[in-house]
Amino acid sequence: MAHRVSIEYCTRCRWLPRAGWLAQELLGTFEAELAEVALVPGTGGVFRVSVDDEVVWDRSEQGFPEPTAVKRLVRDRVAPGRSLGHADAGG
Question: What is the model's pTM?
Answer without folding.
Answer: 0.90
